[in-house]
Write a structure and sequence with these properties.
14 strands; Alpha-Beta Plaits; binds phosphoenolpyruvate; 4-stranded antiparallel sheet; TIM Barrel
Length: about 350
Amino acid sequence: MIIILTASASDRNRRDIIENLEARGFGVHLSEGVEKTVIGVIGAMDEQKAQIAEQFEALPFVERCIPISQPYKLVGRSFRPEGSTVNVRGVVIGGKQAVVMAGPCTVETEAQILESARAVKKAGAHILRGGAYKPSTSPYSFHGHGVDALKMLAAARAETGLPIITEVMDARDLETVCEYADILQIGTRNAQNYTLLRAVGECRTPVMLKRGMSAKLEEWLQAAEYIASGGNYNIMLCERGIRTFETYTRNTFDINAIPALKELTHLPVIADPSHGTGKASLVSAVTRAAVAAGADGVIVEVHPHPEKALKDGAQSLTPAVFDQLMADLRLLAPVVGRSV
Ligand code: PEP
Ligand code: MN
């Protein structure tokens, strides 16, 4: 359940409520919005919720107590109705600006990631992507350069100033990846790896949680709830396409998910049209559609030489095509009340 305090509630009032709930053995999460403070209560049974509501609604600084029936509470829209933002080295995700993350699927060499970083920065991207630990369907294919790649990403950040997003696949690598990453990416194959989700919930680095390739929105939000329940509220959700009967495209990008998530959760929503389509020729159109549908940001694979890419070359944009896409987004975004 959630408890909404009145705008005039003091720090003392807030502490009283929290201590009261903790003394009853409940988990307590605090959301301090611009106007209102919302307290999330975890672990209360239905009859306890009714009792808490009755007792607390008598207090002058409690506006309302709402029992939440969804299996996710902290990431549910009502916990933070105005929406949440994630601040990554000064880049705000979930605000007026639609944020663009771009770069190669995989960090291949220092020269490749530097060339990519310079190109996407010049085009106007805000964040650099690049995989150091790569999930692969085959155990025999390339799995990324690991720590060496993290160092190359850090060098690209040092030169361009772009924050970096990179995937963490294994809880055992988390500490190392956190030393370098500004945003941790959880990939589709790990989207329901609860050990990893709990581990990233313990750290405070922002997380972009991709949708499991066959996850329903509710399952996806419950996965996000794992992270939030550990105290890491810096979460973004990334729609990257789902498995359907269609094979012409690599996945089916679920455009519905964007406005649906806006109803269900306060978390910023990112779109990944590269994995959503698997075809470079389709990426720009689907990126534009995602921004039009209300995405808070996009993540796009860009490679200086897609024909030589170690991974995902077929869906990678050239810097020239990406440059045109950015120009299109700058025209489009104001139509939906945003900037790029
Ligand atoms: C990626 O971003 O390169 C990636 C592996 O994505 P996904 O987990 O969505 O397949
Ligand atoms: Mn990829």
